[in-house]
Structures
1.
Amino acid sequence: MSTFLGQDQLKREQQRGLCAICAQSLPDKYVVLDRTEAMGGYTDANTRLICTGCDTTVQRNRGYA
Ligand SMILES: [Zn+2]
């Protein structure tokens, strides 16, 4: 979940409404604005929209969950 609503919508258009990882259609709610580089900021180049299922996988792979 994200409070960066404007950026979410921009990303949706860039990704044509698909998850950046699994390429499934993103739901209207509960999408995750993921930072490609954890130390980077929420810039356009460093973020991607992913579904909650992929977010769980990504977080686990990073050792956060
Ligand atoms: Zn996904």
2.
Amino acid sequence: MHPDKLLVALDFGNRVEMEEKLSRVARTLNPSPIQQISLLAQSSNAINLAEGFPDFPAPPHIKDAAISAINSDFNQYRHVQGICDCLAIKMKKEHGLDVDALTDIAICCGQTEAFAAAVLATIDRGDEVLLFDPSYETYETCIALAGGVPVRVPLDPPHWTLDPDKLMKAATDRTKAIVLNSPQNPTGKVFSKDELEAIAGACCDMDWLAITDEVYEHITFDMEKHTSLASLPGMQERTIITSSLSKTFSVTGWRLGWAIAPACIASAIRNIHIKITDSAPAPFQEAAVTALRSPSTYFESLRREYEVKRDYIVKMLVGLGFQIHFKPQGSIFVFAELPKKCLLSDIDFASELIKQTGVAAVPGCGFFHKNLHSNELSEDNQSYQNRYIRFAFCKSDATLRDAAEKMGEFVDHNGHLKLFHSL
Ligand SMILES: Cc1ncc(COP(=O)(O)O)c(C=O)c1O
């Protein structure tokens, strides 16, 4: 099925004339497979394992702080310096980085705005920016909006390994920056020490900037630990770190994030942020100070609880017949491979999964460099870019159990999803 067919029909009226009014870059933006699946999931009231937001409550101590800030009438534009002070302490303690709380931090509306402002602050028209393939889909759009050119560096399945030769092959004299997201969406990969050293070495040798997305910094499993690329030799002066409260504190709707960068870049990001949104939500800035001061036990139990959820969903999906060669080392996602016998593309599989079982997950193709459409699939049906389905496990135990039960109703005598046999 062509992805556009997933969209709820909208009446655009004089669509053609109005499209001519759009900017060139806006005309290139299409709804992603994730948005399309989410629309379908909403309209069919499906259990949502598609989107990366928790369906369980946020921690009471930070909710109390936000309520107290609202009751104290923190209602106006605001910059809460306490966030920067906490972040400077955190960066020293966790990564050994000396960060000046007065000059090196910009508070933004989530990592999303911090990333967009970082790109707008550093990327000129025609600059090339390296992105790993697969990666979170927002980066490419931000780079395109800035006039930059995203250039993909493929990670090798099934473990999504970085081959340093492929990294260098993607580089040109127009390469300005590289984007690193670790722990990674969609694969759950935590980049290894060797891989981080290869990236840092290339940045230093080629004089690239690095823009990191560390939103899953506190969600790692087994013996994995998050290392900030900026902590490698020679990297702090060329790295823009972006992160947020969203995932660590289960508050994706609070829109509270930050960028940490050398002073002149942080200052440019602050200026752009002020022009675009002025300030992050005042009450949630107050609550962020409380969040960032959470005891270590909070972060330990976050990790433990997510590890249990990861183990549950991996076991469930393997039982249903998915192939999981790579167990997530971090993040809130599992990138499960369709079995060889399944002849459906990822897009068709995800839409059928909603229709037949009432469970929503995301087709993996949106995270790769091109969105393959079904009419291209006959030639290349086994291309790995259309063989993955992303499941989000940042859901309550009850939701995960419901999803398991629903899918469990549609299995063959081996316990595998019947859907794998569809054509
Ligand atoms: C890798 C990654 N970065 C950033 C975000 C969004 O972060 P924020 O809510 O802070 O804008 C997401 C959300 O799913 C994500 O997966």
